[in-house]
Amino acid sequence: MEPVYRRALNKAQFALVANGHRGLSAGGGSIGGSMARIWVDADACPVVVRDIIVRAAVRTGVEALFVANRLVKLPNVPGLRSVQVPGGFDVADDHIARSVQRGDLVVTADIPLAAEVMASGAEALSPRGEAFSRDTIRQKLNLRDFMDTMRASGVTGGGPPPLGQRERMAFANALDRFLARMTRPAGGPP
């Protein structure tokens, strides 16, 4: 799989150099210095979703940070970073919530984390391709809390179905829409 990343990197590098960019900024910021980043809650991120993010980040030159309490294996490509945090409850989530900036994208299935980063001006996307919305996040939090209470009282739910082709396509399409908005020049066509 490494050669595929290499080919895509060469095209992305060419596009960046042609536009005057030199790669990662000295402060570890995004490629080009002002572009939004993709933060991935990588503790429970499906491998197929991680691979979609890697390919998209390499193709577009967008920085992608995979945060987990273990080292996430990634291709050795500028702009891809594995951020290892100490083990513990919500440590990766807390790191993402502290680090995210307005305009960034957070990929997570964790509804409370999605709500928190959205309050900071970031966007949130589930690994199933659902873009969390400010209009419905409170409703999702309430449903999550209700289901948590049901599980605590002994009622089991079983969890979501396995990630299928439909969900993979939904995720890839939602990510492409975000990247298109993010990389469009100011004042460019919608």
Question: What can you see in these coordinates?
Answer:
The chain has helices at residues 2-18, 47-60, 91-99, 111-119, 137-152, 165-183; strands at 38-41, 64-68, 80-84, 105-107, 123-125. It has one domain (2-183): 3-Layer(aba) Sandwich (Rossmann fold). Helix 1 packs parallel to helix 2, helix 2 (47-60) packs parallel to helix 6 and helix 4 (111-119) runs antiparallel to helix 5 (137-152). The chain has six helices and five strands. It has 190 residues and is α/β, with parallel strands linked by helices. The radius of gyration is 17 Å and the shape is globular. A five-stranded parallel sheet has the order 3-2-1-4-5, sandwiched between helices. The longest helix has 19 residues, at 165-183. 44% of the residues lie in helices and 11% in strands.
**Helix count from the secondary structure assignment:** 6
Secondary-structure class: alpha/beta
The largest sheet has its strands arranged as 3-2-1-4-5
Shape: globular
CATH topology: Rossmann fold
Oligomer: single chain
The topology string of helices and strands comes to: HEHEEHEHEHH
Helix fraction?
A: 40-55%
Q: Major β-sheet, in short?
A: 5 strands, parallel
